[in-house]
Design brief:
Elements: H1 14-21, E1 40-41, E2 47-51, H2 56-61, H3 68-80, E3 87-91, E4 98-99, E5 109-110, H4 115-132, E6 136-140, H5 142-149, H6 155-158, E7 163-164, E8 175-179, H7 183-187, H8 191-209
Parallel strand pairs: 2-3, 2-6, 6-8
Antiparallel strand pairs: 1-3, 4-5, 7-8
Bound molecules: uracil.
Uracil binds next to helix 3.
């Protein structure tokens, strides 16, 4: 099976972890990408946000959520009363998965990671959760939800609620608040309504922090 486990150094701090992740060959996704996109942000964050995987911009720049979805997310966090600079943000999968479609020339089109790739990358996410020890983990979309809560997770049913991660699960008993992926706002016909739903879910995070 694919797994990042042998690449994750034991007892490493965040910067050693990031360095090691740069060389991860735990699944085939590294082959066609520019670089590993590891988590970033405040190591003392009370709130950790988990996305799906880096997009085109993130792959080029080496940082999570620096593209269009990240702009939406920052605005929504701010509006909900969460300072984006006081969060730690990462992805369930650390490499960009994409395809080319003939009509679109050189453009790299995002492809959802498979369950095998998601579980292969799990050891990095678990190591980040262990070091950050957030009070609340925000699952951005279905992929992050599955990574944190298992494959029975359903974003439409569970978004905006406070869920307790199993003590033995990746979030080690931290509170998990799932919401939609911010890129869903960009794809929606009714952007304002979908954006409003994202902000409302993020307000649940603020309430949970007290
Ligand atoms: N979408 C994600 O899930 N993560 C990113 O880093 C960028 C876009």
């Amino acid at each position: 099976a694919y797994t990042a486990a042998p690449f994750v150094p034991e007892g490493a701090d965040l910067s050693a972890l990031r360095d090691a992740a740069a060389g991860c060959h735990g699944c085939p996704l590294h082959r066609d990408t520019t670089q590993t996109v590891f988590g970033a942000g405040d190591p003392d964050a009370r709130v950790m946000l988990v996305g799906e995987q880096p997009g085109d911009q993130e792959d080029r720049q080496g940082k999570p959520f620096v593209g269009p979805a990240g702009k939406v997310l920052d605005r929504a966090l701010d509006e909900a009363g969460i300072d984006p600079d006081e969060t730690y943000i990462t992805n369930a999968v650390k490499h960009f998965k994409f395809t080319h479609v003939p009509e679109r020339g050189k453009r790299r089109i995002h492809k959802p990671p498979s369950l095998r790739e998601l579980s292969a990358c799990g050891p990095w996410l678990e190591a980040e959760l262990e070091l950050i020890e957030p009070e609340v983990v925000v699952a951005l979309g279905a992929t992050a939800g599955k990574a944190l809560l298992g494959s029975s997770f359903r974003v439409t049913k569970q978004r905006g609620t406070r869920l307790e991660g199993a003590p033995s699960g990746p979030a080690h008993g931290a509170l998990i608040v799932p919401t939609i992926h911010p890129s869903a706002v960009l794809r929606a016909d009714d952007r304002e309504a979908v954006y409003g739903g994202l902000v409302a879910d993020l307000r649940v995070v603020v309430e949970a922090l007290g």
